[in-house]
Design a protein that fits this description.
Chain lengths: 331, 512
């Protein structure tokens, strides 16, 4: 765990302690369970985003993808009555295809990630609304999927299964990002794509793979979100989720220029964001201020981090200079 | 003003440094350094990388403050300069990396931020006045381009002229040229040296920093040699010669300049063959070239003659628009650099920091990068395997760094270049292409890199060296291919080597 991550963890604990002191309901099992459920849902989404950001790209369409794939998933199992495992596989495959198309447009046709995924944001939202004719996708009365519901919205030993899913995914993705050959390539490309290419790395394929990973994780979280809300109005479902994901990554120490950030960081970023949401609710802050609080905290966080970096660099210099002076007479 | 005043002005130095000392944490960058620059004098400033040249420049530019010492500019003594003060007293810099806006034209660059404005609230730029102001400046530097030309369309030498014109526009009295010729081909270098002589004739002083000693020989009135932050010596006009400078720079005479063994080498079999290859830059000019095993083939030519473009095709970065590549007699199709690497064709690129290495990664991570799967078990990177490979290359190449975990960004140019070499040597090269391998590298490291190239060739590797440094091309190569406007204009064998022949071919004429 890097110092940055440790700082973030301390911040999370301090904020948590303050909220708990002001409103002890923060620590009620029901509140913790709800919050950790949301951390699970947004965490999966944010990990996907992080893989794209590490390459220096950005994926703006994830909110719309959550809406579209969520709508399709509910439609598949509730209206078309597909077996849910089949629907699950289909949705994940669709997520992968969306990622593949984005990656292809970006690496082969050399379009900018911002542009490609911004178009995706608009397209998938529109398709989702058209698919339901702007209606709401939901389950009919009495429709039940016990296994699916247990896996997505259920709890084990009081812990939401979505949170457990996040932990499992996080461990796997940590290994991929920080230990695997592929992860090293991702960092190398994020730092300097040209130099990576000149080292014989097939950069196009690697970047494309990052978008596919993002697509798959987004699809997975789309299913979790769908099973959490159980009814989806495609006009608003998942709106701004891409920004939650990007915010979590930035808070977690990712640079939008690429090549920087850790998996633990993005998880902690997600935790802090959800804690802030919870704080707004628990401290009686008008919920209309929700976004303002989030934006403010992110800004302060980034500022402190940057200033801390400057401060440390300066202190190192001063230390070294002092050592130099102290050592001078011996010369 | 009376007569005695002017005569004093003629001998009073424009700039003098006395006992300047500057320390950084852990290092003494300049130690009791003194020098002076008289009006109209061209000073050649030489020294190995790390000798303190950059620190000296920073002090003169007012970017950094010396710990002790006096700087006298135009008769006024200072403890340190400020950026404005330095500029205001007429000290101008032309840096190795040019500071031009490529998307603007020449005139806009020269007077950037100081444009003449039309009257009125809109403050529009007065284009005609601007052109009038620029014209005499361009004339003084002998420019053969117009004030309206886009900087991006100019050659490197022309861009340097723009920088010098910019320096003149602020009424510079001392122009400091930092490695101005390191990226220039011969013909353009001559132009630049002419500009320096013109400046001198106008009474402007010049400090010319260069690793290319024969150029220093040609223009300098006096040579100041820095070594380890100290003045190693000063050479007057008559004493300036290559060996003296080298002796002062490294503190001893270089052993007999390395000459490739005169014994005729039996030419090996052709390793890499280009047959009517067409690069994207010169689509209508097919290139035929053979690189043989066990030889160093020098590829000379002017900048822009298509040498780097050819190397990019050989390395799979650019696709060929026609023709075929053959490796050991078999047709080779390269879709990417990864394909080239898989076939043992490696490139040490021209731009080390942009394409050669990843500055933020460690030495070990850079060296393992092209061959990472070999340093991994079940797709997981093995740090110990990585370290072992890197340690071997570090020892082998004499990379000077605290450890292989050191970030490559903190290394000197020569050591960075060795990391680039190390990552390829750790694999099995068949064809090694080196594009300007010694640019910006100090003399000691240069000799080591020449030695390495020779060792590779002796081990049966086909070595292709692109270089704009004439001494280097002639001193190191077994054969020299010369390019002119996208085509091979001729190939010289050892007995035909001469600067004149290379130059004739480079401008498209026949050798003698």
């Amino acid at each position: 765990m890097s110092k940055k991550d440790l700082g973030l963890l301390i911040l999370i604990l301090v904020v948590g302690a303050i909220v708990a002191i002001i409103n002890p309901r923060f620590l009620l099992p029901i509140n913790l369970a709800n919050t950790s459920n949301l951390i699970g849902l947004f965490g999966i989404l944010s990990i996907g985003q992080a893989f794209v950001i590490i390459t220096g790209g950005i994926e703006l369409s994830v909110g719309s993808v959550v809406a579209l794939l969520g709508t399709l998933f509910i439609d598949f199992i509730a209206v078309r009555e597909l077996d849910w495992p089949l629907a699950f596989v289909l949705i994940i495959a669709l997520g992968a295809i969306i990622g593949l198309v984005h990656g292809w447009l970006i690496t082969r046709l050399k379009l900018q990630p911002f542009v490609v995924t911004l178009c995706g944001l608009l397209i998938y939202r529109g398709v989702a609304r058209f698919y339901t004719a702007d209606g709401t996708a939901g389950f009919a009365f009495g429709q039940n999927f016990p296994e699916l519901e247990f896996l997505t919205a259920g709890r084990s030993w009081g812990v939401p299964n979505s949170f457990i899913a996040l932990i499992v995914i996080a461990i796997v993705m940590w290994v991929v990002l920080h230990r695997s050959v592929f992860g090293r390539y991702l960092y190398a490309i994020g730092k300097n794509e040209e130099a990576a290419k000149y080292s014989g790395i097939r950069t196009g394929r690697i970047v494309m793979a990052a978008y596919v990973i993002c697509g798959v994780l987004t699809a997975l979280s789309a299913i979790y979100f769908a099973m959490y809300t159980r009814s989806i109005s495609p006009a608003s479902h998942g709106q701004f989720y891409e920004l939650y994901a990007i915010a979590a990554a930035v808070l977690g120490g990712f640079s939008l220029r690429g090549g920087e950030g850790s998996l633990i960081g993005v998880i902690l970023g997600t935790v802090l964001l959800q804690e802030l949401q919870n704080l707004v609710n628990l401290l009686g802050i008008p919920s209309s201020l929700n976004f303002a609080v989030m934006g403010g905290v992110i800004l302060i966080g980034v500022l402190v981090d940057q200033q801390w970096g400057v401060f440390r660099a300066r202190r190192l210099m001063v230390d070294a200079a002092r050592k130099n002076v102290a050592g001078a007479p011996a010369e | 003003m009376n007569y005695s005043d002017t005569s004093i002005a003629a001998i009073t130095p424009f700039l003098s440094l006395e006992n300047v000392r500057k320390t950084y944490p852990g290092v003494v960058a300049l130690d009791g350094f003194s020098m002076e620059v008289r009006p109209g004098e061209v000073i050649g400033l030489v020294g190995e990388n790390g000798a303190g040249k950059s620190t000296l420049m920073k002090i003169l530019g007012g970017v950094t403050t010396p710990d002790t010492g006096t700087i006298t500019v135009d008769g006024t003594a200072h403890n340190s300069l400020t950026v404005e003060g330095s500029l205001g007293s007429g000290i101008a810099f032309v840096h190795q990396e040019l500071n031009l806006f490529e998307n603007l034209d020449v005139a806009a660059n020269i007077f950037f931020g100081r444009e003449p404005l039309r009257a009125g609230p809109l403050k529009l730029v007065d284009r005609s006045k601007l052109r009038e102001m620029v014209a005499p400046l361009l004339k003084r530097v002998g420019a053969n381009f117009s004030a309206d030309a886009q900087v991006a369309d100019l050659s490197l030498a022309q861009q340097q002229m723009v920088e010098i014109a910019k320096a003149l526009s602020i009424k510079a009295r001392l122009v400091i040229l930092d490695e101005p010729t390191s990226s220039l081909p011969l013909a353009e270098t001559d132009k630049l040296l002419d500009v320096i002589k013109a400046l001198k004739a106008d009474g402007i002083s010049v400090i010319f920093i260069s690793h290319r000693l024969h150029e220093v020989e040609r223009v300098a009135d006096r040579v100041v040699v820095l070594r380890d932050g100290m003045l190693a010596g000063t050479l007057g006009k008559r004493d300036i010669n290559h060996d003296q400078m080298v002796k002062l720079m490294i503190g001893r005479m270089l052993k007999e300049r390395e000459k490739a063994s005169e014994a005729a080498r039996a030419p090996g079999a052709t390793a890499l063959a280009a047959k009517a290859i067409r690069t994207p830059t010169y689509p209508s000019r097919p290139v035929d070239l053979d690189v043989r095993r066990g030889e160093i083939l020098g590829l000379a030519g002017l900048v822009g003659s298509g040498r780097t473009e050819l190397a990019r095709v050989f390395f799979g970065i650019d696709g060929s628009l026609g023709g075929t590549l053959e490796l050991d007699g078999k047709t080779l199709v390269l879709g990417s650099a990864a394909d080239a690497v898989a076939h043992g064709i490696f490139l040490v690129p021209e731009d080390r920091k942009l394409t050669g290495i990843l500055l933020d990664l460690s030495i070990a991570q850079n060296i393992s990068l092209p061959n990472l799967p070999a340093h991994a078990r079940r797709s997981l990177v093995s740090a110990s395997a990585e370290t072992a490979t890197a340690e071997k290359q570090k020892k082998n190449l004499g990379i000077k760094a605290p450890s292989v975990q050191t970030r490559t960004g903190t290394l000197s140019g020569g050591n960075q270049q060795k990391v680039v070499l190390g990552k390829w040597l750790a694999m099995n090269p068949k064809v090694m292409i080196l594009d300007e391998p010694t640019r910006g590298i100090d003399i000691g490291a240069k000799a080591e890199i020449y030695g390495l190239m020779r060792a590779l060739a002796d081990a049966g590797v086909a070595v292709l060296m692109i270089s704009s440094d004439m001494e280097e091309v002639i001193g190191v190569s077994d054969r020299i291919a010369v390019m002119h406007e996208g085509q091979i204009s001729g190939i010289l064998d050892k007995d035909q080597f001469s600067q004149e022949n290379v130059l004739l071919l480079a401008v498209g004429k026949q050798p003698k």
